């Protein structure tokens, strides 16, 4: 076991600390690449100084401040990643139109609901991504994330009757399905009912 | 040819900016007309958010490339941060009672937060009393 692993196990036992040991530097190249692109976009030029300076800064940040491995089991699926922006756009427009209609037609008489939605995901990354997706796309806003019981509590906006409530629930499930498709581990992608397992082993505390 | 592309870009920008402005307006209507913090948050997180995105994209089509990248970066960070903000504000609003309970048809979080021996912690169905 490397010193880095031991250190991480030491912190994992303290309450609140989650995530595994820090990633090895060689596994952090996507983060370095992202930082580099960010640097270039912020400078707004591709002169050699910016390119080299950005690469140096990105590498330094990655080496000096290693992040815990949140994405140990995540696998990126490029095809779905390419489709994701289109899905996001459709969802954004759809939910914005729905909320706007509700604001104009009903206003103070709007009917909403707070729903409990069980998740299949277990890892921090997947739950965070699902919560983010659910807040962006359908007419739902995540109010509360119950990390240990894997539940999202969402505020669903047009929810006048049981049928609409069920539809909003389905929309959160759809958001999670997209997250699983894009970054989920293989066994979850194959089986639509499979829950994510064996992540960190702190599942059902409290 | 170049002129045609230019005209098409201008038209696209005009449409995007106008649509963005309309969604921002509708988000404002939501802020005024919705009854409580969380529903207002929805108006800001959905309609207003889309309005801002459309305006950013529309502007990005017309400015030099380096600035366009910057605008798209703003859009990306907007998409990442708005749900986080919504969740934090929504959570606090819910827990401090800034939610009009009578607007909710179902409230499953209240059942969860209620102490286990509370009388109204049973099955959902009708949820909280129907106000108005």
From TrEMBL, chain A:
KW Transmembrane (keyword) present: yes
Principal location class: membrane
Single Gene Ontology MF annotation: monoatomic cation transmembrane transporter activity
Transmembrane helix as UniProt keyword: yes
Subcellular location, record wording: Cell membrane
Range of residues in the leader sequence: none
Taxonomy, superkingdom: Bacteria
Alphabetical list of InterPro entries matching this protein: Cation_antiport_E (IPR002758)
Topology class, membrane: Multi-pass membrane protein
Gene Ontology CC annotations of this record: plasma membrane
Keyword entries, A-Z: Cell membrane, Membrane, Transmembrane, Transmembrane helix
NCBIfam families cross-referenced by the UniProt entry: PRK08965.1-5
Protein name (database record): Multicomponent Na+:H+ antiporter subunit E
Protein species of origin: Streptomyces radiopugnans
Organism ancestry: Bacteria, Bacillati, Actinomycetota, Actinomycetes, Kitasatosporales
TrEMBL record, chain B:
Residues spanning the membrane: 12-32
Tagged with keyword 4Fe-4S: no
Keywords: Membrane, Transmembrane, Transmembrane helix
Domain of life of the organism encoding this protein: Bacteria
GO MF: sodium:proton antiporter activity
A Pfam family hit: PhaG_MnhG_YufB
InterPro entries recorded: PhaG_MnhG_YufB (IPR005133)
Family, similarity comment: Belongs to the CPA3 antiporters (TC 2.A.63) subunit G family.
Protein name: Multicomponent Na+:H+ antiporter subunit G
Organism per entry: Streptomyces radiopugnans
